[in-house]
Amino acid sequence: QAEKAVHQKKEQSKTKCRKARRRHINLVAEFNRRQRKNIWLETHIWHAKRFHMVKKWGYCLGNSPTEKSYRACYRAMTKHCLLQDLSYYCCLELKGKEDELLKQLARICSIDTGLTFQEASCLSGRFEGSLNLYRADCYPEDMLGPVTFIWKPRDGSGDRQLWIWVHPALKQDILRELKAIFQCSEPEEIYITEPVTTSIQEEKQVEVVTSLGNKRKKEDKEGEKAVPVKKIIGDGTRDPFQSYSWIARTTGIAISDRSMEILRYRLIGPLSHSVLTETLKAASVQTV
């Protein structure tokens, strides 16, 4: 029986040729399986080939390069452009009346430390601001940590939208404090995701590849063009079975956790604006 088991393993491994493993549908299924515990960033594959990866805050991040590229990075920062992936930072979104937002947010910051959420240049949505947050009405004690924020420009109504980016190590404390000052205890909607498992289409495809002596099913009409939908399982700081949005019944303020939904990149260097100008193209707006 032992010899038979070893023989079966060898036969099954032979069927997994490189062409079958490198199919897009199988790659996505394998990537989803490998990031069950630690979330991957969109640039994970690029970093994994060039960096020593570490597991921090529920993510798999690049820590140090495998080659001597410190001089190249410094040269890019001073003369060209250097890009950093900061998508592991958590984004908290606040929606509601501007007056109510500013009234409650003033309790967790102080003008003595510098800019606040009420700064005119930041309130218009033209610039990004940074400040230190404290527990409600506890300044200068009980500091929560530094954050960056940006307002969505006004659209003519009294409702505003605010995005706050926090470090994943500080996210739970800051989110708990925001829900407390706005009294957002009721979830707006329950968000329950499935575990990172392959879909029915992916399972059928994998079974066809691993089955002994069988070829790929011909009834798959899409063939190589079949692209499975990427599953969003939350982020490294949130359980996928927890709710991701809360609303206050009295004021209507809504708090949403947008972590891993909004990507964030940092460009450093004198040619940063040139790179953005060449990369981003204005879309044509068609009015009906």
Automatic annotation (TrEMBL):
Chain ranges of the Pop1 N-terminal domain: 4-96
Gene Ontology CC annotation, any one: nucleolar ribonuclease P complex
UniProt feature coiled coil, ranges: none
InterPro entries: Pop1, Pop1_N
Source domain of life: Eukaryota
Pfam family membership, one: POP1_N
GO terms for biological process, alphabetical: tRNA 5'-leader removal
Protein name per Swiss-Prot or TrEMBL: POP1 protein
